[in-house]
Amino acid sequence: MLAMARVKLDLDGVDFVFRTELDVRITDINYGRHVGNDALLGLLHEARLRFLAHYGFSEEDIGGVGMLMGDAVVQFKAVAFRGDRLAVEMGLNDVERRTFDLAYRVIRQGDGAVVALAKTGMVAFDYAKNRLADLPAVFLEKTGAKKA
User: Fold this and answer.
1) Checking CA distances to 92, which of 5, 46, 47, 124 falls within 20 to 30 Å?
2) Rounded Cα distance, 92 and 113, in Å
3) Residue ranges per structural domain of the chain
4) What pLDDT was estimated at residue 117?
5) What per-residue confidence (pLDDT) applies to 4?
6) Distances in Å between the alpha carbon of 17 and those of 54, 82, 88, 93?
7) What is the residue-wise DSSP string for the chain?
């Protein structure tokens, strides 16, 4: 039997500066009757949009440029079911000149179980010039991000 390599996501030291709540919908449920991996990415996307809006930004405009996702990592810790209310806590990590990680901790309300840990690697992108861009100072200031 082959051993499966496991993703290990270390979010120690992340300052979770934002929290939003999402309800698990029937469309988030897979054939195993719990939140599917694809649906969790959709829930994280919704949380990301709320995070950005909280600071006056959108994915297309984080202070003069947009952003796009370079990668995503999800580590499941527990299952969530239709009707569960999830709290998604978020914070920036590993901030560089053009990139940052957006870290997520997904907690099931009621019992406080951590459902998932995740990160999305985000890249500043100038859509008008179709090229990578530096992270705008206003984005770093408003979100409290510290460059590595």
Assistant:
1) 5
2) 22
3) 18-143
4) 97
5) 74
6) 11, 27, 11, 11
7) -PPPP------TT----EEEEEEPPGGGB-TTSSB-HHHHHHHHHHHHHHHHHHTT-BTTBSSSSEEEEEEEEEEE-S---TT-EEEEEEEEESB-SSEEEEEEEEEETTT--EEEEEEEEEEEEETTTTEE-PPPHHHHHHHT--B-
Residues ≥6 apart with Cβ < 8 Å to 125: 65, 66, 67, 68, 131, 132, 133
Architecture of the domain whose range is 18-143: Roll (3.10)
- Walking along the chain (148 residues) 10 residues at a time, the average pLDDT comes out as 78 94 96 95 98 98 97 96 97 96 97 97 97 97 84
The span from the first CA to the last CA of the chain, in angstroms, equals: 41
Q: In whole angstroms, what is the distance from residue 134 CA to residue 105 CA?
A: 27
Give residue for tokens 């195993």.
Answer: 32
* Residue 1: predicted pLDDT: 63
